[in-house]
Write a structure and sequence with these properties.
Largest sheet: 7 strands, mixed
Radius of gyration: 32 Å
Strand order of the largest sheet: 3-6-9-12-14-15-16
Number of helices: 5
Distance between the termini: 123 Å
Structural class: alpha/beta
């Protein structure tokens, strides 16, 4: 137990450059408090003391802003940076030395029974605001980009970004040339661009059609004038 607590504290110093003093970390880091409260709640949960376990998790949620179901399994060295808005579901399994940032959801996709939350392997990183949903696996040393929504398994040593999440780097090799941390895929914006291109195409077609109609009307008017002139000359000769 004490070795696990020491590793939790050590994880903060290793992964947060703002951590300066042991007392500061122990007393002020809400992510650390949430993890310790969860370890107590999870112990009660395994002993089928469900009400007490859930009570502790809800009290922890009130004070830290981090909601971890007491049934979730979390390994050593787990680090929640800032943490506000983090949600971790009941059947979630988190390995050792995993890092999670604020606003992350490790949740389910519906009312299915059994294993319905993600499995996060050792040394994975889930960035700010990412949503990992369903009974899927995030592989060892993999990273999920900020704001991404992941609905499928991610192999080890991969970087995933976008909505839905797509692998853009695998084993250190970039597999797409459009990867940019500052310009994440935006399907809504993509649809606007597509619609704008379609509107421009229709406007060009309308302009072409308008010119053709005007030319046709002009030619028709010229033929009418010539026909009237011929009739006038025929009447004059008579």
């Amino acid at each position: 137990m004490w070795s696990t607590i020491r590793e939790d504290v050590q994880a903060v110093f290793e992964r947060d450059p703002a951590a300066r003093h042991l007392l500061e970390v122990v007393l002020t880091y809400s992510g650390l408090h949430a993890i310790w409260a969860h370890r107590l709640a999870h112990g009660l949960f395994k002993r089928r003391l469900y009400f007490l376990a859930r009570l502790i998790s809800q009290v922890s949620r009130f004070f830290t802003g981090i909601e971890i179901h007491p049934g979730a399994k979390i390994g050593k060295g787990f680090f929640i940076d800032h943490g506000m808005g983090v949600v971790i579901g009941e059947t979630c399994e988190i390995g050792d030395y995993v890092t999670v940032f604020q606003g992350v959801t490790l949740g389910g996709t519906g009312k299915e029974k059994g294993k319905r939350h993600p499995t996060i392997k050792d040394h994975a990183l889930i960035a700010t605001g990412a949503k990992v949903l369903g009974s899927i696996t995030i592989g060892t040393y993999s990273k999920v980009g900020a704001g991404s929504v992941v609905l499928k398994d991610v192999p080890s040593n991969c970087t995933v970004v976008g909505i839905p999440g797509k692998v853009v780097i695998q084993d250190g090799v970039r597999i797409t040339e459009n990867f940019d941390h500052c310009n994440m895929p935006d399907p809504v914006q993509d649809k606007f661009v597509e619609l704008e291109a379609e509107i421009q195409r229709l406007q060009e077609e309308v302009a072409v059609t308008k010119r053709e109609v005007e030319r046709s009307l002009s030619a028709y008017d010229d033929s009418d004038v010539q026909h009237i002139d011929k009739n006038k000359r025929a009447v004059s000769s008579d």
